[in-house]
Amino acid sequence: MTDSRQDEAVATPRAEQTFVWTRRHTLMLAVVAAAHILDTIDIAIVNVALPQMKASLGFSEAGLSWVVNGYLVAFGGFLLLCGRAGDILGKRRVLLIGLALFTVASLAAGLATDATTLVVMRGVQGAGAALISPMTLALLATIFPDGPRAKAIAIWGMISGVSGVVGLILGGLLTTGPGWRWIFLINVPVTIAVIVGAVVWLERDPANTRRRPFDLLGAIIATAGMTLVVLGIVQASQAGWGAASTIVPLVIGVVLLGYLVLHEGRVAKDPLLPLSLFKIPTVTGANATQALVGSGMFVLFYIATLYQQEVLHYNSLQTGLAYVPLSLVLMGFAKLTPKLVGTYGVRAVVLVGAIIAAVGMGLLAFAGTDGSFLVNILGPTIVIGVGMALTFLPLSLAAVTGVPADGRGVASGLINVSRITGGALGLSIVAAFAAGYTKQKLESGTSAAIALTDGFRIAFIVGAVLLALAAFTALLLPRKPAGAAAKG
Whole-prediction pTM value? Predict the structure, then answer.
């Protein structure tokens, strides 16, 4: 095929009957996937390095948690705004801005000399990730037509699923090797390489993307509301649901988001979050289910990691390596999932996946103080991996299926909001149950190891219930394949 024919295939991806997957499509997919790795891996990579950061920069216990939470609050708070910005300003342009911001923040975080600077830069990293994340899915929906789109999103979803695992492993290797600062510094050359790839291989945005109006008030309300809700959820896991630091931001955030619905439906001429999106069954069902599935993934990486380190006494590297089989399962089933979606439809695949993941989470509850890696870690996490692989791709696909091209950025942001806020809320609920039960056992004279294990067991049971609920919300998804045949 000549270069002119390749360019024509890239420029007209919607005509599925004439679409030919070229080398350029592979390169575009590689660039988008690499960008997606950056924002997902940074959620997990810092977890194993927190003790070293605390000793180096003099963090307090409460302040240390904001190395993780500062990223999540900014990420979750800015997703809707950044998703809509891509629809209006251009997806490639917004992706490049996000990558540049992420590069600068990573460099500053790696060179931080005090705790405050590190936390602030983690927030800036989160804002950069909010610019990057929705653009990656939106770009795939724009570049590839329905059939090949399933294959592209399968690869994207596989990478997203394994990024958290890779983050734990890479964090352990860097922390025990050159030191915790390289967790951030390594982002700099990688991100620069992705920027070069995006400039060279991604299509320029249409010229008319700059001419559309922007709902500034809606953007301010949505960003403030989402930020406060995520902040309140994060505070709940630390101070409890009854604390003022939890209730105040949650109430204000919910009120702002409630007004946002009124504003977007009746006031805004070009709304930040078009309410018409929720009339699309795939969008509503995908977001409701993703919130519950996200909570299961957060529980797995957070609670299971604590169990390995605090009860089984794994070091940071051993903890990360324990998730290698999970990543292999995710990669393997990511290749199979598009065919299942094309044959059985989104609803059936997600429903089965949620049930399998719930069973795996339930199996973790059988772990004891002398748990076996093969029986209590490897087996359950493999089962969970199968379930997650069967849910992540179909939900990501459903989130942008049937959405007009000029709304895919905000739709992609919305599914990420559901994943982050749902995961944070689910983890807060699970952590509250676990902490309360552990405290009760300690007060009754139970040993620390048994009390912790019993608390983690409660957490896994609640996590399994949340994943089981995802099977019910999956019924909101369409019965037939959602325009995503796997044969492309």
Answer: 0.74
